[in-house]
Structures are given as structure tokens and as C-alpha cells.
Design brief:
Elements lengths: L21 E6 L14 H9 L5 E2 L4 E2 L4 E3 L9 H17 L3 E6 L3 H7 L7 E5 L19 H6 L4 E6 L4 H9 L3 E4 L6 H11 L3 E7 L21 H14 L1 E8 L9 H19 L3
Helix pairs in contact: 1-8, 2-3, 6-7, 7-8
């Protein structure tokens, strides 16, 4: 495997790989970022922020203890295509060990790399302010702004929280029949039902671009957009997905540290705890 022991551990826990259920993969990738650089420092900052949290998730009444192994940061080559292959190989290795992989990033391209390690029947539910459906950016098809399009070539994609895209992107989303929930309206019960129809009984991978949140609670991202979702709303949607589907992987990405203002990293770490707790609670 490409994994090696990390110096720092999520929630300040040292968990033996053989005993762990989950494997956290820090992916410091910041190759194709087109606006604010710095997401390669996100993984380390999230891990550091997690140490301020309790292991016990009081909202879900679950203790996230002794189940997460924290890998050292993946060594990412400077070429985006090669980086995707490293991520694919690493996630595949974790799956071969019958462990549950999840990543922290890093630019959103990491999700495309992970998608190649999963079967084609896995549904990718992506929380993102952006559609990420560009055909190419600056002459490169593998790009953080093409992430959803690349994944959709092989796996079904559902987008939640979108509020930034071009007319061409919207046309292409409709043509590709990508179920998209835009952020300019509340997430209603009818939307939950539509989402669950697409995910119930399916294997699901959840990807959270932190810019899906409103910048007031998550300012530390590479491409912030006003009018975003709030923490409770996002957690509620994930909870509904977890009830009726089988989660097989997830990632939290696009964190760009802002120094002492680390509320974005705290939110990311708390989300990780929530998702792990929800998976354990809803195991069938």
C-alpha cells in the first residue's frame, strides 16, 4: 500500500490500522486551483483543528473513538493526471483491506481520483457551490472545475447546493440528466423525497466541497460564494441519505486555511465526525 504512518492523528487518537474501521487519507493537492491557492494546506489544518473537539458526538449520541486510522499525507505528483492515479491506487488499496476510505483535501479533483476506485453503480452525491461541469479549464480536462463532469462519465452524480455556473453548464447538466438541487431555495421535504429516490438502496459516496456552506460560517475556501447552505441543513440531508443507502466513501475538501480564523476547519472536522457517526448508527 501507499499508506504510511502519519505524525498527526485526527481527534488526537493513535489507532492501529488493523483495528480501524475507517482510514483517513489527507490529500494535499492544489494543482489546478484557478482562484485562491492554499488548499494543499487544508488536510493538516483540519487534523489540527479536530484536536479541539470531543470524540463524543452529542447531537447523534455516538462516540467516534478508536475506529479512525489517520494516514500520513499522500505524496502528490505535480501532474494532475498522475495525481489522480495515485489517489485511485491508494483508495483501491484501502478498499482491498476491507476498510472504509475517506479523504480530506485539497482541491476537489481528489474526488474524481477516488471515483475511479469504486464500481460504476456507486452514486456520487456532491455538495458544492459550483456545478464543476466545465469541459476543460486552461486546456486541461482534469481540473477542479471539471470534477462533476468527469465523475458523471462513469457514475451517476447528484449535485446539492449549486449557485455558481454558466448557462452552458446548466444546459449540459440538463442534457446529462444530472439531478441538481440549487441553493436559491430552501431544501424542502419534496426535495428530500426526490433525493432519496435517487439514492435509496444504492451504494453512495458523499463529497463535500466546503464552499457549499455560506461564507459566514466557512470563509476559508478557495472559491467562496454568497448564499450558501448552513451546517444543520447539510447534516440533515446527509442523515436522510444515510438512513436508506449504503455509504461506501466520502471526502471533505477545498479547505483553505486563513491562519487563526479556523472556523472552516472546525466545521470540516465536525462534519467528518457526523458522517462517521451516521454510518455507524445506520449500519444494517
Amino acid at each position: 500500500m501507499l499508506l504510511y504512518e502519519g505524525k498527526d492523528s485526527f481527534l488526537e487518537e493513535t489507532v492501529d490500522f488493523k483495528k480501524a474501521k475507517y482510514v483517513l487519507l489527507p490529500v494535499p493537492m492544489d494543482i489546478t486551483t484557478t482562484y485562491l491557492k492554499g488548499t494543499k494546506f487544508g488536510p493538516r489544518s483540519i487534523i489540527e483543528a479536530s484536536r479541539s473537539l470531543e470524540n463524543y458526538d452529542v447531537e447523534l449520541d455516538f462516540d467516534v473513538r478508536d475506529i479512525i486510522y489517520t494516514s500520513g499525507e499522500l505524496e502528490i505528483p505535480p501532474d494532475a493526471g498522475e495525481a489522480v492515479e495515485v489517489i485511485k491506487k491508494t483508495v483501491s488499496d484501502v478498499l482491498m483491506e476491507r476498510k472504509f476510505p475517506f479523504m480530506i483535501g485539497g482541491e476537489h479533483t481528489i474526488t474524481y481520483g477516488a471515483s475511479l476506485a469504486f464500481d460504476k453503480d456507486v452514486v456520487f452525491v456532491i455538495f458544492d457551490a459550483h456545478a464543476d461541469f466545465k469541459k476543460n479549464v486552461l486546456g486541461s480536462e482534469i481540473n477542479h472545475a471539471s470534477n462533476s463532469r468527469l465523475i458523471n462519465k462513469r457514475n451517476k452524480v447528484v449535485l446539492i447546493g449549486v449557485r455558481s455556473l454558466s448557462k452552458e453548464d446548466r444546459r449540459d447538466l440538463e442534457k446529462a440528466d444530472v439531478l441538481t438541487f440549487y441553493a436559491h431555495g430552501p431544501f424542502l421535504d419534496k426535495d428530500v423525497l426526490k433525493l432519496k429516490k435517487a439514492t435509496a438502496g444504492k451504494k453512495v459516496y458523499i463529497s463535500i466541497d466546503m464552499d457549499v456552506f455560506d461564507p459566514s460560517i466557512a470563509p476559508g475556501v478557495g472559491t467562496p460564494q454568497p448564499g450558501g447552505m448552513l451546517y444543520i441543513a447539510v447534516r440533515h440531508v446527509i442523515e436522510e441519505i444515510a438512513k436508506d443507502s449504503k455509504l461506501v466513501g466520502f471526502d471533505v475538501n477545498e479547505v483553505r486555511p486563513l491562519g487563526e480564523n479556523n472556523i472552516t476547519e472546525i466545521l470540516a472536522a465536525k462534519l467528518i465526525m457526523d458522517i462517521v457517526a451516521l454510518i455507524e448508527i445506520n449500519k444494517k
